[in-house]
Amino acid sequence: METVPLVLVHGWKSHPGIWRRLIEKVNLPPEKIWLFDYSGLYESTVFHIAGQLRSFLRKRRRLDGYTGQVDIVCHSMGGYVTRYYVEVLDRNKREEKVRQLIEIGVPNQGSSMAEIFNDPVHGPQVINVLSGEFVPPEYVPEKDINVQGLRVRSKETRELCNAGLRPDIRYRNILAANRTGDPAFFPSFEGKTWVLGHDETWRKTWLGDGVIPHYDSYLPGTEFDLIPADPGFLHAEPYHYCHIHLPKNPEVIRLIIRYINNPSVSSSETFPDRW
After folding, report:
1. Rama region for 65: left / alpha / beta (φ>0; ψ in -120 to 50; rest)
2. What does the alpha-carbon distance between residue 107 and residue 122 come to, in Å, rounded to a whole number?
3. What is d(CA 275, CA 268) in angstroms, rounded to the nearest whole number?
4. pTM surpassing 0.90?
5. Domains in the chain, please, with CATH?
């Protein structure tokens, strides 16, 4: 049986090096690991980056002479971009054959964090707290084209929600939560995650990874695993379960390898059809 290639798509203001530990652990030949790098496209729209992902995959398939399915693992904005490609740009043709789309902390409903950056009341304080840690110094969200596309109220998010999921793809989510209420989980927000609810009000929740709340990651009827499976793991290294470190987290890596080695295995939980 031919080996299924593994496509890796990093997140916002990140780079392919974030996957180093996963690449070391996964039992795949180097030519079967396809690293998509959009680290130089931070002044580009989601539409443009998704188009670049399409071009990248077309080129890799052509060079490898490969026409079968791929597994895609994506983190944060990388999952949003990937879904925009396969569900919006590729919705009708279904040119890209995807066996599994494995998401790690992806804002499927748009990003509350991207939205709060632009909030006139909360935005300046949130940006100041995250400056130098998650956002660059003197960060101006209005000038960040990536972030504008990721907003809950953006045109791109409306397009994604209207497009719907592809029935030929198995979707999986890996979601982290502060299951012990430890402030060290993500000290910037006392261990919690900002979320914009249905009622358009802001609140903080333990159900998130410090950046992406579960509310944003919701995909109706799809599978997910909640980490840490054992809340006791948070006592030793709580910060390893926050959003920024998830691609390097050993528990995340074990789950990804489990999915790849046995694609028929079920995840531990399923999102309801309605949130």
Report:
1. left
2. 19
3. 18
4. yes
5. 6-270 (3.40.50.1820)
